[in-house]
Automatic annotation (TrEMBL):
This is Phosphohexomutase. The keyword Ribonucleoprotein does not apply. GO terms for molecular function: isomerase activity. Keywords: Isomerase, Metal-binding, Zinc. It comes from the Bacteria. InterPro entries: Carb_Metab_Reg_Kinase/Isom (IPR051804), Man6P_isomerase_Firm_short (IPR014628), MPI_cupin_dom (IPR049071), PMI_typeI_cat (IPR046457), RmlC-like_jellyroll (IPR014710), RmlC_Cupin_sf (IPR011051). Residues 246-325 form the Mannose-6-phosphate isomerase cupin domain. Residues 8-117 form the Phosphomannose isomerase type I catalytic domain. It holds the Pfam family MPI_cupin_dom. It comes from Carboxylicivirga linearis. The lineage of its organism: Bacteria, Pseudomonadati, Bacteroidota, Bacteroidia, Marinilabiliales. SUPFAM superfamilies: RmlC-like cupins.
Length: 326
């Protein structure tokens, strides 16, 4: 029987110029005193922003501390061998009350060379969207670096960006190198590599409350951008109730969607990885070690340690969970 248990963490809330109040209104996050809470970092190993356990006997310990103690029992032997005490994923909820900057993230090679960091491949799962809300993913046509620079210099960048109207359940996979921006009126879950390296390339000429524009990284971005045109950047997937529905599988994470209206038994004997569950709809109980349980509500995130090999997930009515592992 595992001594470890499903772990919850204190949310790390971030004030953003584009943030709003949906994290509080829809996900029950305590955002006060932040005026514009844009992000809730649910599980983070980013230096200076390391998550702290909020439940059970490990409450008060940081994610780094418990990885150091439990190693492969917590994250999986294979994961520990590769990443050591660095947690490889950063898990967030994002409330875009206004449009985010158009940006790009470097890949592993460039990020290592410039920042001694991992690159940043990520994905978005749209939880709620105001009527007509759109996001940017990729370019609207085939172009090369010179054409891009020409549009950048003539302040016409928006004209070559691909905008997509979104609805709840939409998924966008954003590999490192793809230009992107979350649009106004969107609440989403984000799964990404552990990295805080962002190159901001256009910020819609907005100013902060002191009249300053935000720093841009247009030169750094040139080598990071993948100029390839992608016709269909939205991820297509189907959802069978009470089954694991794979949505994204890449070198950095696998993400599944579970739509539940009955208890589902799960075993992870072949996995050798931690699992993360983000509740994006409803409420469920995670039953482990026979009869112990942890509740997960919409807007909550739970880390299942690698040595917890069997759990039951019991929805209250209906629930929708995002499942993530390496």
């Amino acid at each position: 029987m595992s001594k470890l248990y499903p772990l919850k963490f204190q949310s790390i809330l971030k004030d953003k110029i584009w943030g709003g109040h949906k994290l509080e209104l829809l996900l029950n996050k305590e955002i006060s005193p932040l005026p514009n809470a844009g992000e809730s970092w649910e599980i983070s190993g980013v230096p200076g922003n390391v998550s702290v356990v909020s439940n059970g006997f490990l409450a008060g310990n940081s994610l780094s501390e418990i990885i150091e103690i439990y190693m492969g029992d917590l994250v999986g032997d294979k994961v520990f061998q590769k990443f050591g005490e660095e947690f490889p994923l950063l898990i967030k909820f994002i409330d875009a009350n206004n449009v985010l900057s158009i940006q790009v993230h470097p890949d592993d090679e460039l990020a290592k060379e410039r920042h001694n960091s991992f690159g940043k491949t990520e994905m978005w799962y749209v939880m709620q969207a105001d009527k007509g809300a759109q996001l940017i993913s990729g370019f609207s046509k085939e172009l090369n670096r010179d054409e891009y620079v020409s549009k950048l210099n003539s302040n016409e960048l928006e004209s070559i960006m691909a905008s997509h109207e979104v609805a709840p359940g939409d998924v966008f996979f954003i590999p490192a190198g793809r230009v992107h921006a979350i649009g106004k009126g969107i609440l989403l879950a984000e799964i990404q590599q552990t990295s805080d390296v962002t190159y901001r390339i256009y910020d819609f000429n907005r100013k902060d409350d002191k009249g300053n524009t935000r720093e841009l990284h247009t030169d750094e971005a040139l080598d990071a951008i993948d100029y390839t045109y992608v016709a269909e950047p939205k991820t297509k997937y189907t959802v069978d109730p009470n089954k694991v529905n794979e949505v994204v599988k890449c070198d950095y994470f696998t993400t599944n969607v579970l739509e539940l209206d009955q208890t589902v038994k799960k075993d992870f004997y072949g996995l050798d990885s931690f699992l993360i569950y983000m509740c994006v709809e409803g409420k469920a109980e995670i039953v482990y070690n026979g009869d112990e349980l942890e509740t997960i509500l919409m807007g909550e995130t739970v880390l299942i340690p690698a040595d917890l090999k069997e759990i039951n997930i019991k929805p209250e009515g209906k629930a929708r969970l995002i499942e993530v592992h390496l």
